Amino acid sequence: LRLNKVIAVAVSNISIPPMIPFILYGSMAMGGLALNKPTLLPLSSINLESISGCMFQYIVGSILLAVVASVIFSSITFIMLNFFRRNPL
């Protein structure tokens, strides 16, 4: 497909370990907004029961975050590919 190797590696490694806390927080925040719940639990009250109670919020948030991120990044990619096209129409 003659893809740019740097871009292919950067995009394929989107969930590298340093990004995991941001992805988890974004998923909980999106789920909290969608379900009108608090974004995160206080650190002092985190236990297995509280985590399992927030699982639905996390799942809803992760699906919404994936959809929003895919729309945003695919739009940016489409605009950049049209801007840097070698043979303009």
Descriptive notes:
The protein has 89 residues and is an all-alpha fold. Helix content is 66%, strand content 0%. The protein is built from 4 helices and no strands. The longest helix is centred in the C-terminal third of the chain and has 29 residues, at 55-83. The radius of gyration is 18 Å and the shape is elongated. The chain starts with a helix and ends in a 6-residue tail after the last helix. The relative contact order is 0.11.
Please give the structural blueprint.
Elements lengths: L4 H8 L7 H16 L12 H6 L1 H29 L6
Q: How would you sum up this structure in a few lines?
A:
By secondary structure, this protein is mainly alpha-helical. The chain has helices at 5-12, 20-35, 48-53, 55-83. Helix 2 packs across helix 4.
Percent in helix? 55-70%
Q: What is the number of beta strands?
A: 0
Q: How large is the share of residues in beta strands?
A: under 5%
Radius of gyration: 18 Å
Query: Topology as H/E string?
Result: HHHH
Average pLDDT, all residues: 81
Secondary-structure-derived class: mainly alpha
* Major β-sheet annotation: none
**Broad shape:** elongated
Cα distance, first to last residue? 22 Å
Number of helices: 4
Low-confidence region ranges? none
